[in-house]
Design goal:
The protein has 8 helices and no strands. By secondary structure, the chain is an all-alpha fold. Helix 3 runs antiparallel to helix 6 and helix 7 packs antiparallel against helix 8.
């Protein structure tokens, strides 16, 4: 692996982990302010993060791959592109895809926390809640990934 690729993945992973932690802390604080109203949402922020991360990853996956030279050419032809409304060189470099996809999304989403949440729900006798949680994570995640892909593809096709 190229050192710059590893650095991109690492930078994305740090950002993804920090974002996930911030979302978790924010949700926990909101629940603590009014536990009677929001207590039933405890742990569900992970499902929301996983679905959002799946949407983002779907978009990253659907974004065309461009080379660094295409990115450089894009900046030099920005005026021409703006006049014609064609996204010349639109896309992500392979390294940007590593940063956003493997690094950020891989660290932002979390299968391990999802797994532990399910085991804890079952251990507390909350089988129906655990089943709902599995459905939201799996069906929601796959649907969100598809929506992210479709959105990017539609944006790309409408820009041509």
């Amino acid at each position: 692996m190229v050192v710059a690729d590893a650095a991109a993945i690492g930078a994305g992973a740090v950002c993804g982990a920090l974002c996930r932690h911030h979302v978790g802390q924010s949700v926990t604080k909101q629940i603590a302010k009014d536990p009677k109203r929001y207590g039933h949402l405890t742990g569900w922020h992970t499902a929301g993060i996983n679905v959002l991360g799946s949407f983002i990853l779907g978009g990253v996956f659907a974004t065309p791959v461009v080379s660094e030279t295409a990115k450089s050419a894009k900046s030099s032809t920005a005026a021409t592109s703006a006049a014609s409304k064609v996204p010349t060189g639109f896309g992500l470099t392979p390294r940007a895809k590593l940063l956003a996809g493997v690094g950020f999304c891989g660290s932002f989403t979390t299968f391990s926390t999802y797994s532990v949440d399910i085991v804890n729900m079952i251990g507390r006798g909350e089988a129906a809640r655990a089943l709902g949680y599995v459905a939201v994570n799996n069906v929601g995640g796959v649907s969100a990934a598809a929506a992210g892909m479709l959105l990017v593809r539609k944006l790309i096709s409408s820009g041509k």
